[in-house]
Amino acid sequence: MSKLIDKLFGAIDHVTERGSRQMAHRLGRRTFLSFVGKVAVGGAIMPLLPFDRDGGGTARAAAEKTDQECEYWRYCALDGFLCTCCGGTINQCPPNAQISAVTWVGTCQNPGDGKDYLISYNDCCGVASCGKCLCNFNLRERPGYRMGVHNDINWCMANTQTNYHCTVAAVVGLGNSNG
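-> structure tokens emitted (179 positions)
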């Protein structure tokens, strides 16, 4: 078996050496250095080039989103599992889960009517984590010291049952158009 491996490595070595020598005869050092320079500069510039982050999402945006998809308009500032995927509704916690005593809010635009709505995001607590339909949107999120508009907090800590299960997104009212 070792003789076979030695022959294989010998053949690879021979082909590589022959290719390297032929390339050295055809190309000069300057050409080679120019090629290496282009590859290095191209590799350094590649992260700066623009690219399509939505992965074709604009084509999918035409289709109406359901309340079990992260791209649904009410979920623009949601960070957590969707209760609609966990046995609840968009406004109500699943059975045996309690709504959090505190909440965070966001303003989301409904593409259907073009209006901004104030959305109250309430965590549902007291049951083990759902683990389905995880969404994480940080649109216009504020720093952590502005607790009422920060979505990275376990809001169940205000309840006696602190286990996080999922999050509901209830429309509270129309957003202020005055800015």
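Helices lie at 2-26, 29-45, 57-61.
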